[in-house]
Write a structure and sequence with these properties.
The protein is α+β, with helices and mostly antiparallel strands. The protein folds into two domains: 67 residues, Alpha-Beta Plaits (2-Layer Sandwich); 31 residues.
């Protein structure tokens, strides 16, 4: 296994591993539990994403694309809220929840 990425925390590392697994690349998180050992001291370079050496180049390209994407902001969420499909999905989810709740009482 080869070090691909130094994550800020375990959550970021697992997000990256999930991204790599979706592309059928073998990856794992190393050092995740060492964060608790250092206590309140700022630890950097502790949580690492490791990838198979054969998958390293493909994984590196995915990380470059992931880093280049802009983060989700409130304005990008606002665009989705203005889309009528957003409301249809919300209504569908509420209806499914109510339907599932009513089935329990029958």
């Amino acid at each position: 296994m080869k070090k691909l990425y130094e994550a800020e925390n375990g959550l970021e590392a697992h997000m990256i591993v999930n991204l790599l697994e979706q592309a059928h690349l073998n990856a794992r998180v190393d050092g995740e539990f060492l964060q608790g050992a250092v206590g309140e001291i700022q630890a950097s370079g502790v949580v690492r994403v490791m990838v198979d050496e054969g998958d390293y180049d493909a994984a590196k390209e995915l990380i470059k694309k992931w880093d280049a994407e802009p983060p989700i902001t409130s304005s990008s969420l606002e665009r989705h809220r203005n889309n009528p499909i957003f409301y249809y999905v919300i209504v569908l989810m509420i209806g499914a929840f109510i339907g599932a709740s009513l089935i329990q009482y029958m």
